[in-house]
């Protein structure tokens, strides 16, 4: 049973990669990019969620459920890989680094700024502090990426 699940998960990930790689088509329209990003976000969330469910089941001694959830998490990762490949999420190291810096600046920091402000306006002070704390971590990460840009891109 355990090996069967592992095999199925491996087949799912492999087939997602193979099927995804058969298309050389560029998916460049803004609407299509948005659709692929939405699919990646959904699959990434499902992957993480099932991983947490697996860890919980493991902690509570439900080994069989832990295996089912771990296999489901792997399957969702396979789905994520398909969309990531079609999206061409991964580029050269330099492109990846630029994308990481841009994401931290444009998405994460601004997102947590907004979420903290909205939580604060609702009177949810503790939640606002959580958002501020993660925002600070994202800003720190952004600085690390910038230092990496200087090292990698200047020698690239
Ligand atoms: Fe999925």
Can you put this structure into words, describing what you see?
The chain is mainly alpha-helical and 156 residues long. The chain has two domains: 2-87; 93-155. Helices cover 87% and strands 0% of the residues. The chain has five helices and no strands. The longest helix has 31 residues, at 125-155. The protein is globular, with a radius of gyration of 19 Å. The chain starts with a helix and ends with a helix. 17% of the residues are buried. The mean pLDDT is 87. Fe (ii) ion binds at residues 43, 46, 76, 79.
Small-molecule binders here are: fe (ii) ion
N-to-C order of helices and strands:
HHHHH
> Could you give the distance between the termini?
48 Å
Number of structurally distinct domains: 2
Largest sheet: none
Q: Please indicate the percent range of residues in DSSP E strands (runs of 2 or more).
A: under 5%
Quaternary organisation: single chain
- Total strand count, please? 0
Mean pLDDT, all residues: 87
How much helix is in the residues?
over 70%
Number of helices: 5
- Determine the structural class based on helices, strands and strand pairing: mainly alpha
- What's the gyration radius in Å? 19 Å
Low-confidence stretches: none
- Structural shape: globular
């Amino acid at each position: 049973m355990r090996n069967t699940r592992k095999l199925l998960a491996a087949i799912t990930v492999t087939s997602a990669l193979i099927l995804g790689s058969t298309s050389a088509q560029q998916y460049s329209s803004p609407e299509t990019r948005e659709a692929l990003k939405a699919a990646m976000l959904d699959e990434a969330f499902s992957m993480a969620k099932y991983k947490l469910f697996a860890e919980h089941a493991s902690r509570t001694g439900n080994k069989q459920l832990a295996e089912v959830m771990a296999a489901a998490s792997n399957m969702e990762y396979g789905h994520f890989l398909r969309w990531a490949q079609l999206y061409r999420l991964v580029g050269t190291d330099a492109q990846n680094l630029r994308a990481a810096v841009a994401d931290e600046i444009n998405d994460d920091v601004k997102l947590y700024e907004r979420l903290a402000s909205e939580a604060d306006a609702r009177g949810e002070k503790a939640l606002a502090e959580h958002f501020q704390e993660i925002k600070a971590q994202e800003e720190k990460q952004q600085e690390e990426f910038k230092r990496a840009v200087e090292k990698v891109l200047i020698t690239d």
